[in-house]
Design a protein that fits this description.
150 residues, 71% helix, homodimer, mainly alpha
Amino acid sequence: MKKLTTCLLAVTALTMAVPTSAQFAKADDAIKYRQSALFVMQQNFSRVAGMASGKIPFDAKVAAESAVVAEFMSKLPWAGFGPGTDKGDTDAKPEIWAQKAKFDDYAKDMQIEMGKLAVAAKAGNLDNIKSAVGATGRTCKSCHDDFRAK
Amino acid sequence: MKKLTTCLLAVTALTMAVPTSAQFAKADDAIKYRQSALFVMQQNFSRVAGMASGKIPFDAKVAAESAVVAEFMSKLPWAGFGPGTDKGDTDAKPEIWAQKAKFDDYAKDMQIEMGKLAVAAKAGNLDNIKSAVGATGRTCKSCHDDFRAK
C-alpha cells in the first residue's frame, strides 16, 4: 500500500508538472514545440548514454548537468500533442490520438525513468547510470515502436 | 560594492548553470539545438507576454508554469553557439563569433530578466509581470537587432 501511495504521488507530481493547459497559436507551433522539446531532451540523454556505453569519456559533472536538462525536457513535449495536431510535418502516428491513454502511459513511464536517470547521474555512480540509461532507452523505444512512423 | 558583489554572484550562478562543456556530434546538431531551445523558450515567453498585453486571458497558474519553463530554457541555447557552428541553416550572424563577449553579455542580460519574470509570474501580480515582460522583451530585441539576420 505504501508503495502504491508513493507511486501515485510520483505520478500526481509529474502530472502537475506538465503544463497541460499550454496553448499554441496554431497546430504547426504545437508540432514544432514537441519536436523541439524532444530534440533538446534527446541531445542531452544521448550525451549521458554515450558516456554509459563508453563512446564518450565519462565526465560526472557533464553527465549530471545533461541528465537534469533531459529530465526537465521530458515533461514538456506532451502539451504539443493536443487535439488537431495530428496533421502536418510530423512522424507522429494517428494511433497517438486513437490510443491516448496508452500514449500517456508511455509518456509517464519515460518521465519516471528519466527522473531516475537524473538521480543516478547526480550521484555519479557509472554502473547505476548505465542501468538507468538502459531503462530510459527502453521507454523511448516502446513509444517510438508503437507511435512514431518509420 | 554590495550591489556589485550581488551582480557578480548572479552572473557566476548563471555561468555555472550553463552546460558550457556540452558537446554535439556535429555542427548541424548544435544549430538545431539552439534553435529548438530558443523556440521552446519563445513559445512559453510569448504566452506570458500575451497575457501581459491582454491578448490572452490572464491565468496566474499557466503564466507561472510558462515563465518557469522559459527561465529554464533561457540557459540552454548558448551551448549551441560553439566554434564552427556559424555555417549552416541558421540566421545567426557571423558577428556572434566576432564579438563573442558582447553576445555573451546579451545572453546573460536575457537570462537575468527571464529570471525576474519567473519570480514575478510566481508571485502572480499582473503589473509586475507586465514590467518584467517589457524588460525581458527588450533584451531579446537588442540581441536580435545586432546578431540575427533579418
